[in-house]
Amino acid sequence: MTRTWTHIPILAPEIAQLLLQRLDGVYIDGTLGLGGHTRFFLSRLGPQARVIGFDKDEEALAMARERVNDTRLTAVHASYTQAPQVLADLGLDGADGALFDLGLSSYQLDNPARGFSLQHDGPLDMRFDLSAPLTAEKIVNEWGLDDLERILTQYGEERNAHAIALALMAARRQGPIRTTFALKNIVQSVLRGRGKIHPATQTFQALRIAVNDELGCVERVAALLPKLLRPGGRAAVLTFHSLEDRLVKTRFKELCALGGWQLVNKHVIAPGYEEVRQNPRARSAKLRVIEKI
Predict the structure, then answer these.
(1) Fewer beta carbons within 10 angstroms: which end of the chain, N or C?
(2) Cβ(153)–Cβ(161) below 8 Å
(3) SS3 for 21?
(4) How many other CB atoms sit within 10 Å of the CB of residue 10?
């Protein structure tokens, strides 16, 4: 039986209101996913508008093309960090707006074969781009103690990073750690019954960030915005954990300090009660928007 994947775009009306300043403009969806935000945008844009959608996940791209089913969408298998070159190749001198949704899609979270979820047993993968060489399995089985502790501390903000790293080193001496449940059980054996979230949540976050160089990609977003946006163009960034949000906040302030940029929302925008009730995965989302003057 073929499973039908669902994905609810977070803060879609709010993002559309802040981002879509020109109804016939060119817009970037930096993380196309299953096309939820893009489909919402296109329902509000004019017939001459274009959306260039980027994703490193070929499976998600194929589903997005089918779901959006609109000639105004150009879907590109590439990282959003390649957006300026892709725009140039398409004969476009820039974009009027860009969205970077830095969260995982429900398709990635709920698909056991991708290895992102604590809820489903599957291979310890965690790659957005399945052609990339680095997997979570490679990290937990091959990286040294210091590097394991470093990513758990920096990317997972895990206070017990040293103990978890030691447990991983000990476990892999008995045999390779190959599945999400194997990893979850190792971490759980170190951190029994801690807090409201699962004890392995921060370890999974740290591995996912390391596998996909997520913070490096956020840094590159800020660097490419001056080349990507036309004057008056806006960039919206949707983050889902504090590391990303702090980094976006800092880089946006730095752009404004250089001149030629202004914050559209000085205070972060978060989903309301009703949206979180209907879509619990929206609860940690934070939106920041900046405009090129």
Answers:
(1) N
(2) yes
(3) coil
(4) 24
CA-CA distance, 25 to 45, in Å (whole number)? 8
> What beta strand segments (E) does 44-92 contain?
50-55, 73-77
Using CA atoms, how far residue 259 sits from 97, 171, 201, 252, in Å, is 19, 52, 39, 11
- Report yes or no: 73 and 65 within 8 Å, Cβ to Cβ: yes
pTM: 0.86
Note the pLDDT tens digit of each residue in 31-52. Answer: 898 899 999 999 999 999 999 9
Yes or no: say if 266 and 291 are a contact pair by the CB < 8 Å rule: no
Angle 214-228/201-212 helices, nearest 10 degrees?
50
Q: Which domains does the chain have, with CATH numbers?
A: 12-107+214-292 (3.40.50.150), 117-211 (1.10.150.170)
Burial of 264 (0-12, 13-18, 19+ CB in 10 A): middle
At 91-128, the pLDDT tens digits run 999 999 999 998 766 666 778 889 998 988 999 999 98
Report the C-alpha gap between 185 and 180 in whole angstroms. 9
Share of the chain above pLDDT 90, in %: 75
Burial classification of residue 182, based on how many CB atoms lie within 10 Å of its CB (0-12 exposed, 13-18 middle, 19 or more buried): middle
Question: If DSSP states are collapsed to H, E and C, what string results for 226-261?
Answer: HHHEEEEEEEEEEECCHHHHHHHHHHHHHHHHHCCE
Tokens of 176: 């390779």
Helix (H) or strand (E) holding 119: none
**With b meaning 16 or more CB within 10 Å and e meaning fewer, what string describes 226-256?**
eebbeeebbbbbbbbbebbbebbbebbeebe
Q: At what angle do helices 161-174 and 180-190 cross, to 10 degrees?
A: 130
pLDDT of residue 267: 93
